[in-house]
Amino acid sequence: MDRFLFLTFDGLSRGAVYAAFALALVLIWRATRIVNFAQGAMAVATAYVAYSVADATGSYWLGFVVALVAGLLLGAGVERVVMRFVDHSSPLNGVVVALGLVLIIQGVLGMIYGNEFRPAPAPFSRDAFEIGGVALLSRYDLFVFAAVGAVVVLLTLLFTRTPTGLRMRAAAFAPDVSRLLGVPVGGMLTLGWALAAAVGSLAGMLVIPTELGLHPTAMDIVFISAFTAAVLGGLDSPIGSVLGGLLVGLLLSYISGYLGATVAPMAVLALLVVVLLSRPDGLFSRSKARTA
Amino acid sequence: MKRTATVLAAVLLAAAGCSNSDSGGGSSADTPGVTDTEIVVGTHMPLTGPAAAGYSKIAPATKAYFDYVNANGGVHGRKITYKIMDDGYNPANTQQVVRQLVLQDKVFAILNGLGTPTHSGVLDFLKTNRVPDLFVASGSRSWNQPDKYPGTFGFNPDYTVEGKILATHVKTEHAGKKVCFLGQDDDFGRDSLAGIEKVLGPVAAKQSYVTSNPNVGPQIGALKAAGCQVVMLATVPGFTALSIGTAAKIGFKPQFVVSNVGSDPTTLAKTLGAAAPLLEGVVAANYLPLVNDTANPWIQLYTKVNKEYNAGAEMDNNVVYGMSVAYLFVQSLQSAGKDLTRDGIIEAVKKGGFTGPGLVPTRYSATDHSGYGGEQLTTIEGGQAKWIGKPFRTDDGDGAVEVYEQAAVAPPANGIPAA
Amino acid sequence: MTVVRDRVTTRIASPPMRRRFSPLLIIVIGAAIVVALTYALPPFRTYQLATVGAYLCVTAGLTVLTGLNGQLSLGHGALMATGAYTLALWQNKFNLLAVGIVVAILVTTAVGAVIGLAAARLRGPYLAGLTLAVAVVVPSITSTFDETFNSDQGLSVILNPPPESMTVEQWQAWVCWGGALITVLALALLTRGRFGRDMRAVRDDETAARLAGISIARTQVAAFVVSAACAGLAGALFAVIAQSVSPGAFPLTLSLFLLMAIVIGGLGRLSGALIGAVLLVALPAVAHEIGEAAGSQRLEGNLALTFFGVVLVVVMLAAPGGLASLRIPRRWQFRTKKH
Fold it and tell me: Which of B92, B188, B393, C196 allows an S-S link to C191, with CB 3.0 to 4.6 Å?
């Protein structure tokens, strides 16, 4: 039983990170119909900046804030300088450009920082509390839950309660009409990318201390799990991506814990197949299932 | 913008075409990689990736020693050029870079290719192309097959030999305790386990990992659930640190006993960061002088070479290892004589009889290509390795684990093997 | 709420009736060129030539799937792995190469059929997500069933030495290009006929296609199966030239590079597939040379990566139709521009 509890909390903790990352992917998808394959690399770049600042000033939190700000700037920059000029008539062009960006970012990071796995300490202890003799959560896990929860709440509030949020949604769903109504569609796109990149940076900062170390390809696996989570939940649904992330995290944790680490990706594939066979647009999508 | 792209594309393809001209060359007509003034050898190493921790320092150290020898006139008037290629511990990349080294760079020999999974895949290619494959940086038994691979020679003690020695220590010091095993899912892990089980019998629980998945939480969790008191690790340094760190996080504190290839305290401490104190009491083994043994004449020699030719990189056991490999290679070159051929170097290594920094001698002969034959146990105290007891020697089979009593050998005065 | 559906416009379609060179003629000329090259080039270049041939098999199939049928697959690396491992297991047991290659193609076709059936109803990023999960599952399978597949260390492939008259590399190039030319011929014939028309119809407008009596699911699955067969052949050829298989040879990045190669080469065109295959071998080699010239070890690999990335971004921004589309500048004037 205690193993089950430990695996549950461990899975939820990882799942929260996947949820945040999936949310970032969904944000960009809803705004631009592009899956941002460069999300992981962008998050790693901001993490490097954060740890450089933390090493230089001795303050992890300063580095953390810098990571989020860097995320905003990087997201806005990528949208303005690169993605805006991509020919969107084929969805593949955006994908290839994003993949090219990944290579550039990882190459530049490697050149500046080297490819070794740098130790990335966590701000809180990662040793698990013992509650009734059972090692359950650690302080760090609680921090992860709090951070992701805050992000989800803030984004929900932004999109549903603020005028900016309304403008962003309008720009995404009906760009021509919004333009007529005076909404700066291009600016909203940039804002969307900036926010998504910041969320991605947060997810990166949360997950990297739990890995072997910080290195240029550190977020690749997280990207894959998060993309899977977003697809599971439905790329059009933010709730779907959050729930999908938690589900993927839990599944990976249980399967790794009970059946062994090597079986986990097969379980994720099986889950995807089962879900997508019955709901080809994801679990929580609102568009009708396509008839074959 | 379209025209710019056309021009750019044309330039790129032209550049690709230009690289068609053979790079390097200038090798003598007879022996690839050898001219009157130069010997070119190559290696494949994990300079990047999850196995790079620690190992990425070996090849620069080897190169530094070669630079030292070159500065003192080289070997029979030839300078040694060492081409270091990164394979990221990925066997597919090893295939590519070794083909490049042999077919394009036309190296004389492959020296100290690192990794059991990576090097296993190139044995046939090197055999077909009759390239000497010297001093493989791994303890797999695959390098000791004189009939099948006459040009391949190991360097590290076989993992089976090491497993037997470590298990003997566990049998004496931790009698009656529950012993478990975590190893890499390839010949490295399998050979180590075979050695351990020869002495201790079947272990209580065993788990494996792959370097492409840097999360050993499930494996450590399973070992904790099995109630292990001694955990024997056949892991590369990054994963040794990961295992020890992960165990601490879930409140699991067994006695760790680690293979030599994953035990360098400096590398482990760096990877563990603030959790470095967890290393106290970890048992391992070694067959070369310990880097913290500053009174040892070999360490003094290596420190001097490191400062002058390796840009004063941090000294650790990987640097000691790299330079020891270089020393042995220079010895073989000296033994092969001025008229250097591929067959000549192989015969020189087979003749053996080299004395060097090792605590036990190497075992090269016409029938044994394995390398070092034994190790001495160490424990970590105050962040550094300290010797325990005496060196042991044994074989891959059911031979006994015996103490080796001969005194260590000192290096030559100028640190370069005599002709 | 409008459901935005992404369409691949005719701007990127390969015009089927452009120039009526007989595919057979092109194949014969191609074969002659390859044979001549194998005698003229030094061994390492011949080896690279063989690699291009192997890549051409899979890029051709993938460009048909994605360009002509609109299905985005991120999992073709896994299909190549299926072909490669099948060949390795076969060779290690029976050592009959020609039969082994056929078996590898058949097994991969079966796997492709299964995936294609599961994916028949998926579109766009959902298909991408499923195929991504397939790509990532390769190391998981090799590690879980490590008795058969030997985990990350992989398997060696037993091969007979080539006949005395040719070097190993020449033989490899002949085998790979033999496979590649047969694949290209088969795909050229397929896509010029009814199957090709059906595929393009489904890609451009599913509702219209259904009204015209085309079975969407059957076309989708058939396209996937055909491209899977090509990937299986490519994987088997890779196993032959590397003489070993391991999961590290078929990472996710391989699937992504394949995609990038066909998009840059020119989606939907077999000439684009050839350009893509050449780029897959030439770009890393050029990048490596640039990196080596830079000197520092750290700089080397990363400079190569950055160079590769810059090329991708520049070509995509400048020539969205791919490099193959650059040769007909006249036609750009007549395209209607979107956005």
Answer: C196
Structural domain spans, chain C: 23-249
Measured in angstroms, the CA of B41 and the nearest CA of chain C are apart by: 17
pLDDT in tens, B144-171: 999 999 999 999 999 999 999 999 999 9
As a whole number of angstroms, the distance between CA A213 and CA A215 comes to 6
Q: Assess C146–B contact: CB distance below 8 Å, yes or no.
A: yes
What is the predicted ipTM? 0.84
Residue B37 above 90 pLDDT? yes
Given an 8 Å threshold on Cβ–Cβ distance, is A10 in contact with B48? no
Task: Compute the mean pLDDT over every residue in chain C, rounded to the nearest whole number.
Answer: 85
The percent of residues in chain C predicted with pLDDT above 70, rounded, is: 88
Residue A275 lies in a domain: no
Within a domain: A288: no
Instruction: Note the pLDDT of residue C268.
Output: 85
Instruction: Give the containing element (helix H, strand E) for B326.
Output: helix B317-336
Superfamily in which the B38-157+293-378+390-403 domain is placed by CATH: Response regulator (3.40.50.2300)
pLDDT category, A291, cuts 50, 70, 90?
very low
Judging contacts by C-beta atoms under 8 Å, the chain B residues touching residue A256 are: 215, 217-218
| The pLDDT of residue C5 is above 60 | no
Q: 3-class secondary structure for C6-49?
A: CCCCCCCCCCCCCCCCCHHHHHHHHHHHHHHHHHHCCHHHHHHH
Note down the domain range covering A197: 2-218
Same fold, B38-157+293-378+390-403 and B159-286: yes
CB of C13 within 8 Å of a chain A CB? The answer is no
- Among A241, A249, A41, which residue's Cα sits nearest to residue A152? A241
Q: Is B159-286 in CATH node 3.40.50.2300?
A: yes
Structure tokens of A48?
A: 């490097």
Q: Which positions in chain B touch C47 (Cβ < 8 Å)?
A: 99, 103
Single pTM value for the model: 0.86
- Predicted confidence at residue C332, as pLDDT, reads 47
Number of domains in chain A: 1
Is the Cβ pair A121, B209 closer than 8 Å? no
Main-chain dihedrals φ then ψ at residue A30, nearest 5 degrees = -65, -30
Of C173, C152, C151, C154, residue with least CA distance to C162: C173
Categorize the per-residue pLDDT at B21 as very low, low, confident or very high, splitting at 50, 70 and 90: very low
The first and second tokens of residue B86, run together, are 């990164």
Between the CA of residue B91 and those of B46, B119, B148, what are the distances in Å? 10, 7, 21
